[in-house]
Write a structure and sequence with these properties.
CATH class of the largest domain: Mainly Alpha
Strand content: under 5%
CATH topology of the largest domain: Hypothetical protein af1432
Helix content: 55-70%
Largest sheet: 4 strands, mixed
Number of strands: 8
Length: 794
């Protein structure tokens, strides 16, 4: 009881795994998580740390195009630009007005005292003591201090307006020319000039002759020179006082604008682009064993600077999403409704998923070995060629063997994409594995003998070498013969390894997933197989029938471009279920006794239907494979056992049901199974013909194919009317050759001749299908309406 319960639970688990769509989502999540974990970035930034004089431990090639800045040349250019920028000086045009205003205000204060005395004639001129009281205010307005003696001289001349005019005139002549605080610094710019910017209006003008401007000492000297013609007629003391006062009042009206100058220098520097030279992807930067020189060190620093540090979590999330979406899109667009994957869909997807995981693990293992051998290699995967030796094309070859070329192409897209991600998203890796894999799959899709794997391996090795050479020309700035030779050797070995892995994995996959390849079918096509030998010994009639059916099926499959090998092997094994009850089938009855004469029609029908179930059991026991089992199950479809159905009707059984006399099916699902059904019916019927002339054979073939077509037995195997026409044609050629007319040799014994004639015109030997023919000769009319094949286009 417990065993039964455990068996039921196991069957439920198998049913769930084989049919539930949740299994597919689970596989997708597992692959995504697996790939993300195995390719989790261990370090966020690649290291190219070398100093000048260090010995390189590995070859370093540029992983992509990048630019190296010549900082020395850039700095020289910036210095040139900096030197070319003219220094900004501010010109204070309002300084003269300000000084003149101060002079007028200061002189007005003591002059007002004398003015009041003039207006009041009775009042005497103010005394010096009174005027001296205004000196502090005078100095405040003027902005400078003067001595008491100088003030007394001005008192003597009553602070005359003429004195004010002379002072302003002298200052005006000097300031108008321009006074600079540090003329020595100014003259350093004589080679390029300066920009003079007027304060307030911000008008600018370029001044190239800088010698015209006065320095502080020159300005003082120019006061005396400019004042000499103005002061020649006045008192010497007053003249000296005016000169001294002007010298003190003068201020530089041309000053350096440091902030504006620096701003313009910065603006000019920003316009200078760095001086760069391009390093192309694949260009050799440093060879193993070389000492690092200055130029190489500059390139390595630039490469290090451009190796952006990535956030590990964000990078892993990106890998997960790319993996998830890539697999999902390819599945939904190309694999979900693919006709080759409709039956046992989950099993096929499980096979593809495990293959994907296996080969991605192999990629990770290969990179791990490479890293262990040389730790420096880990940051430069994309520039290394060792990936070419990884036998990724074996995955496409295996997929093509078991599921077909088109599915192998879709699988290759995903595998190549994920493999390239494992190598830092290298475009070269994707191109190499994609082209290599689909080419390998193509070369084994037609011929799947073991020796063809080796031939395909050598062809793939040569193709890989050429592909490696092409990628070398593409990625290397200057083709390097040693590097190209190494890459071609690795690629060549990778092609051979792919064929070897395919040969090694094929039997294992056949065993685990119950797949059948052409190689296995070739083994089963050997007539020395135990079941075929047993059939030949115990049921020679069935054996002969099966051999002819296989021949017919092979020719028909060739005519419509179906699998000839599969059709032939299905033909050999389609009737193995007749073993054990061989005498219940007329082709094995040698004594003329028919066991069905003592059975009811329904029991006879059960015996005939049972040979399908028995055949499946024997096929599973001898591990004949899924394709052969499907051929056994489907070679009768749901067709009617007409003879015993009519016999049951004739017996007067009013409760007879047609479905009890039909095979359980299913109808043929493949073209090869449909061909075997047609060959089985046609061979048995033609064998029963009295006089198998070419015309009678052709008519019988057309009639039988038309019956099967009209009964709907071929509606699920995608067979067209053109296919049926070609099949009928091939059947006619072979059957006419087999059952051709023979010369009847004379026999001395007339009795024997009569006996042979009687035997010839007597009961025909037949299979389970031909009993209906015998019943028809006794006058029974078949209820099935037969339409001429010409109406169907045949």
């Amino acid at each position: 009881m417990r065993k039964t319960k455990n068996g039921n639970n196991l069957n439920q688990v198998k049913e769930f795994l084989s049919t539930s769509p949740y299994v597919l989502w689970m596989l997708l999540i597992i692959i995504t998580v697996f790939f993300t974990i195995t390719h989790y970035p261990e370090q966020s930034k690649t290291s190219y740390s070398y100093s000048i004089g260090d010995v390189a431990k590995r070859d370093i090639k540029a992983p992509r195009n990048f630019f190296v800045e010549d900082k020395e040349a850039t700095n020289i250019k910036k210095n040139e630009v900096k030197e070319s920028v003219k220094i900004i000086y501010d010109f204070d045009a309002g300084l003269l007005k300000k000084i003149s205003s101060n002079i007028d205000a200061a002189m007005k204060i003591p002059r007002e005292l004398f003015k009041k005395a003039d207006e009041q004639t009775l009042e005497p001129d103010p005394t010096f003591a009174i005027v001296l009281a205004t000196k502090p205010e005078f100095e405040e307005k003027l902005g400078i201090e003067i001595s008491k003696g100088a003030y007394s001289i001005f008192y003597k001349y009553q602070f005359s307006p003429d004195i004010t005019l002379k002072i302003k005139a002298i200052i005006n002549k000097v300031l108008i020319n321009g006074i600079v605080a540090n003329k020595e610094f100014l003259l350093k710019e004589a080679h390029k000039g300066i920009i003079l910017q007027t304060i307030g209006s911000r008008e600018e003008r370029t001044v190239n002759n800088l010698k015209v401007f006065y320095g502080p000492d020159q300005a003082k000297a120019m006061v005396r020179i400019e004042g000499q013609p103005l002061l020649k007629d006045i008192n010497y003391n007053l003249s000296n006082l005016i000169v001294d006062l002007c010298q003190k009042l003068l201020q530089p009206n041309i000053t350096l604008n440091k902030n504006e100058t620096e701003k313009r220098i910065r603006e000019a520097e920003t316009q200078i682009k760095p001086i760069l030279y391009k390093i192309k992807a694949g260009e050799m930067i440093l060879r193993e064993g070389e000492r690092v020189d200055k130029v190489q060190q500059v390139k390595l620093v630039a490469l290090q600077d451009q190796a952006e540090e990535k956030d590990i979590f964000i990078s892993s999330t990106g890998i997960s999403l790319i993996t998830f979406l890539s697999i999902l899109v390819v599945y939904l667009l190309f694999l979900k409704d693919h006709k080759k994957l409709q039956t046992a869909h989950n099993k096929h997807i499980l096979f593809l998923s495990l293959g994907l995981i296996l080969y991605l693990t192999f990629v990770k293992f290969s990179t791990y070995i490479a890293q262990s051998a040389n730790p420096e290699i880990m940051w430069d995967f994309s520039s290394l060629s060792f990936f070419m030796i990884i036998p990724i094309p074996a995955a496409a070859m295996l997929t093509c063997l078991f599921l077909g070329f088109d599915i192998a192409v879709f699988f290759t897209i995903i595998l190549s994409l994920l493999t390239s991600l494992a190598f830092s998203g290298s475009f070269e890796v994707f191109i190499f594995f994609f082209l290599s894999s689909i080419t390998a799959a193509y070369w084994i899709k037609e011929r799947q003998e073991r020796k063809n794997f080796i031939i395909a391996g050598f062809k793939l090795a040569a193709f890989n070498a050429i592909l490696a050479l092409s990628l070398g020309f593409y990625s290397l700035a200057q083709p390097d013969v040693p590097i190209l030779a190494k890459e071609m050797a690795l690629a060549f070995c990778g092609g051979l390894f792919s064929a070897t892995f395919t040969i090694g994995f094929t039997p294992l996959i056949e065993f685990i997933f119950d797949y059948t390849t052409d190689s296995t079918l070739l083994e089963f096509s050997n007539l020395d197989q135990p079941l075929i030998k047993k059939l030949m010994i115990e049921a020679p009639g069935t054996y002969n029938h099966s051999v002819i059916v296989a021949t017919l099926a092979e020719a028909a499959a060739s005519a419509i471009n179906a699998s000839t090998l599969k059709a032939k092997v299905m033909g050999y094994y389609h009737d193995i279920g007749k073993l054990g009850k061989t005498l219940y089938f007329i082709e094995n009855q040698a004594d003329g006794k028919n066991r069905h004469d003592k059975l009811s029609p329904s029991m006879s029908a059960l015996v005939l239907i049972g040979h399908v179930k028995k055949g499946v059991e024997l096929a599973k026991k001898h591990k004949l494979g899924k394709e052969i089992i499907e051929g056994i199950i489907q070679h009768h479809g749901t067709s009617l056992i007409k003879y015993f159905y009519q016999k049951s009707l004739k017996s007067g059984n009013a409760t007879v049901k047609e479905e009890n006399f039909r095979y359980p099916g299913p109808k043929p699902q493949t073209r090869e199974a449909g061909i075997v059904m047609l060959a089985d019916v046609v061979e048995a019927a033609v064998r029963a013909l009295d006089r198998p002339t070419p015309a009678r054979i052709q008519g019988r073939v057309k009639e039988l194919i038309n019956d099967i077509f009209a009964d709907g037995q071929l509606e699920e195997c995608e067979m067209t009317l053109k296919d049926l026409h070609q099949i009928a044609k091939s059947f006619n050629n072979i059957l006419t050759s087999i059952y051709h007319s023979r010369i009847e040799y004379p026999d001395r014994s007339p009795g024997k001749n009569q006996e042979k004639k009687k035997e010839k015109n007597g009961i025909s030997k037949d299979t389970d299908r031909q009993s209906a023919k015998k019943e028809n000769t006794n006058g029974y009319n078949l209820s099935k309406d037969k339409t001429d094949l010409k109406r169907l286009g045949l």
